[in-house]
Design brief:
188 residues, alpha+beta, 2 domains, four-stranded antiparallel beta sheet, two-stranded parallel ribbon, 7 helices
Amino acid sequence: MVECQHIDSTALEQFVADAHIVIAHNAAFDRKVAERHWPFFANCHWACSATGIDWKAHGLSGARLAYLLSEFGLFHDAHRALDDCHAVLEILARDLPGTDQSALATLLDRARQHRIWADGAPFALKDILKQRGYRWNDGTDRRPKAWYVDADAIDAELDYLRKEIYRREHLDIVWQTITSLDRFSSRI
């Protein structure tokens, strides 16, 4: 279907120019590809509908688009770009189970977060960190070889790490604010 087709860069840039935010269901992949082929995407704010919402915390089985659609009583022709876009829009327009807030509102609320690195955390506590939502970074991307989490409440998370993980009250912990302008890019 896409053989011998191309994307008009000028038309794409004009289309994106008025966007307040670009939403992808796998922004960690899509943003890097988009910026590599069309550098103007580096100036866009991005959000990820797959990872920007804790779907499981709202009683859903996970972030896969097909699962989400099924659990909302919807279906679509998977892996067709336009159908996937419409499917994501349908999901984001709905209230999250147990809330009176749409998935889109939740996603936009979380678009600016803080990344906290649990550098040097004891290996024996890795399962506790994983349960709390921390992910492992192996250091091959020039970022710390450490556990990290993207958190809304920075003081509470730093306090948790000092008391429960490091068990030292006066400890400087590495953290950075990540805005939707940088999130999912190769720059962080």
